[in-house]
Write a structure and sequence with these properties.
Elements lengths: L2 E2 L1 H20 L2 H17 L5 H10 L9 E2 L2 H23 L2 H21 L3 H13 L4
Antiparallel strand pairs: 1-2
Helix pairs in contact: 1-2, 1-3, 1-5, 2-4, 4-5, 4-6
Length: 138
Amino acid sequence: MDIDVRGPRFGAALTTVVLAIVLITGSAWLLAWQTFAFALGAAGGVARSPYGLLFRKAVRPRLGPPTEFEAPEPPRFAQAVGFVFAAVGLAGYTIGPEWLGLAATGAALAAAFLNAAFGYCLGCEMFLFVRRLTVRTE
């Protein structure tokens, strides 16, 4: 079942804010939260992530009906990519080196911002690229 494209963008906007605060404060706890949110989105799909649930319960009822939909697999893959970057960032913040935490968190922030501001999901594009490479043509 396809998903409302506004949900992942809403999640990306919240992720952008969270990751920006992490970079400003150096909070490993907040990055741990975001890592957990990414893990839930990767495991259960963006609709089951904390931000997806918030969108579905609090935001979507206040919007008009969706006009655009997308397959759930690319955003789910993007959540998995975000999880990897957040986990590496968390390792950098907690066990070092700190520059690794800053770099990985910054990369995740850049990808989240691209989706939130411009609707360009870098992880989704990675999914489609990998899919094109692995699908055999006959």
